Amino acid sequence: MKEIGNFLKERREARGVSLIEVEKDLKIRKKYLQAIEEGNIDIIPGKTYLIGYLRNYSKYLGVDEENINQIIQTYKNLEKSKSNLEETGENIILPKKHKRDKSIFEKKKFFFPIKYVYLISFILIICIGLLFLSHSLKEAQNFPIPSPEIAKETDINIEKNINLETEAIIAEYPKEKDISNDTLPFLKLIANDKSWIKILSGGKIIFEGILFTGEVFSWKTDQALEIITEYPTKIEAYYNDKIIEINKGVINNYILKYNFNPTQNV
Q1: Class of 2-87 per CATH?
Q2: DSSP labels for 2-51?
Q3: Boundaries of each HTH cro/C1-type domain copy (predicted)?
């Protein structure tokens, strides 16, 4: 019956007609038309009504008389086969019922062992955890605890080693008197706007970073320096409070390099 319904549905959709339009034209309720197309004919009241619906619906969709008779005959054959199955239904249904009952019982038998397996597994995990905890506590009890005297001696030795290492570091790196000496003149850079600056002395970087507006960088030195910044410059440079005209440096790709020598520039 599903094949007949699909055939009629395709004919209707090919004509561009909705079930509501068919309902208005044939005076057949939409739910019965939909049941015919879906092959769900059990909701249609009576065989006579169904044959009439099939005939009228087929004519409405332009199906010729020969095909209409074939549709009706196909429906009758299906009904005849269905009635024959109902007569022999007891012989067919009973074995299926027994099989279904058997499978239910099998599921119940299979369910209980799994439940016990989970319970036993849970108990085993708890037991293993307790054994592991007990073993760890025993090891902790057997772990030797150093006496207070040994601990004090160890702390004294550590302090001595730290002091010796500190003295060695201080001896290796003597104080730079030329930098910290108060008699050395100041190099001072003042940022008028956010500006990137890099200062080198003897090929080593003394400072590299960004000075924000109003920020000041000071350095005590009497050595030659290379001052690098962006161009146009946004900083003012002073050496011993005397202005340095760093704009006279070399400009390349918006980068200014100024070689400052205290003996020459001041």
Answers
A1: mainly alpha
A2: HHHHHHHHHHHHHHT--HHHHHHHH---HHHHHHHHHT-GGGSS-HHHHH
A3: 8-68
